[in-house]
Amino acid sequence: xxxxxxxxxxxxxxxxxxxxxxxxxxxxxxxxxxxxxxxxxxxxxxxxxxxxxxxxxxxxxxxxxxxxxxxxxxxxxxxxxxxxxxxxxxxxxxxxxxxxxxxxxxxxxxx
Amino acid sequence: xxxxxxxxxxxxxxxxxxxxxxxxxxxxxxxxxxxxxxxxxxxxxxxxxxxxxxxxxxxxxxxxxxxxxxxxxxxxxxxxxxxxxxxxxxxxxxxxxxxxxxxxxxxxxxxxxx
Lengths: 111, 114
Hints:
The complex is a heterodimer. By secondary structure, chain A is mainly β. In chain A, 0% of the residues lie in helices and 50% in strands. Chain A has no helices and eleven strands. Chain A has strands spanning 4-7, 10-13, 19-25, 31-37, 43-49, 56-57, 65-68, 74-78, 87-94, 100-102, 106-110. In chain A, the strands form two sheets. In chain A, strands 2, 4, 5, 6, 9, 10 and 11 form a seven-stranded mixed beta sheet that branches. Chain A has a four-stranded antiparallel beta sheet with strand order 1-3-8-7, with no helix packed on it. Chain A starts with a strand and ends with a strand. Chain B has no helices and twelve strands. Classes of the chains: A mainly beta, B mainly beta. Chain A binds chain B through residues 31, 33, 40-45, 48, 50, 58, 88, 90, 92, 94, 99-102, 104-105, and chain B through 4, 9, 35, 37, 42-47, 50, 91, 100-102, 104-107.
């Protein structure tokens, strides 16, 4: 029972490159989330998915796209990475009326 | 829009002593949840404690307890008998009753000295 897993753990990109961050959960939760964490700013919601097949924008969606591939997987794509997207990215899941469970995070650096 | 404020960027405590971390929030809603999350150097976000706004009784989890003052919109975390393993960033968070979104404060870094 791995909970919430994220790949990769670390990534360095050059400006303009694209990449996809993967998130998978084995807890059978309906809701999944992507956050970014920047120094001194706490976690901010990028996108979330309340159920398979649905996605909604959060607080800071610009520059990102998401796909809820199935109930287990929720990916975050950067089409053209920018230095402002250097951050730590967290995936989280939640079952209705319960708290969110977080993955271990991905540290992304964009040069 | 709801906001969460943590006014203490850093706090320190001696091992075995008690420390209180502050959190205030702003909302016009009456039904919501409040949380404290711990983030150790491993970066993993770990739920410490949760409070439902409709409950008057303060939540407690072992050495961790909250002081929830709904009228004052205050939600502080008290850590008793502090241990070296309590050293971490602590985030206060708010969620409306009928939404999916968590709103986080900016965090308080807690240092624990032997």
